[in-house]
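A further point concerns the way the authors explain their paired sequence and structure data. Each protein is reduced to its one-letter sequence and a matching series of backbone shape codes. An entry of this sort, consisting of the sequence and the corresponding backbone structure tokens, reads as follows:
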Amino acid sequence: MARQDFIRKLDAREIPTARRPQVHTYHSFTNKIIRSAERMNLLRGPLHFWIDQDGFHEIVALREAIRQVTAAHRAVRTPADGKAAAHIPDIDFGEARRAIGLWKGGLIKPERAGYRGDPRIIEVYEAYEQRRTDKLGVTFDDFVPTAVDVLRRHPDARARVGGTFSHIIVDEYQDVNLGQQEMIELVASPSTEFMVVGDDDQTIYEWPGARPGYILTDCQERLIDLPWDTYELRRTFRFGR
């Protein structure tokens, strides 16, 4: 919605196409990188994009992974005489889905995952990823990690995408997570000029997997090699003061 609003405003200004800045969400930009990587044969393919509105393929794969892990644990607990195993709590689907989304946002693969809740969810993550990759599935949560992996492993792809941006503006910067930050750094060149816009008061939410340190202290260290300034916006159209 925000992206389309930006594009409509650019249309209204009648800016020539050659001079018009690109407007992207993280998903639309990383989707562009993934599609380009497909054409360059840098990824196993053809990929299947599990991005339908109800998330059907993602849900099916995750439920299958939960059943696999649950069955494995119950089999271990089953006595040799074949009597029913002791009750083992079900693995919560929503908890597993949220954890996997956070791990992917933090570029954490199953072998590096840690969890303070149900430890079986790490096993679910591993089983789910095996199913997804076997089927060449790509969910919304995979867009940024896949694009980051491509740019890290293939300097030619990074050269085609990065190094072409003289200016980058990142809105809602208080919400960036590790994967998004890595992607921003990978597409920039040493001479790229940055502007980041955000509300540091909103960093308390840390959603989804956001790292407040980026906007509070780390921005100039990680992104900006040029002189920089901070502008505080005390008056906005929302508050009028």
Q: What stands out?
A: The beta strands are 48-49, 137-138, 167-170, 193-196. The longest helix spans residues 56-77.
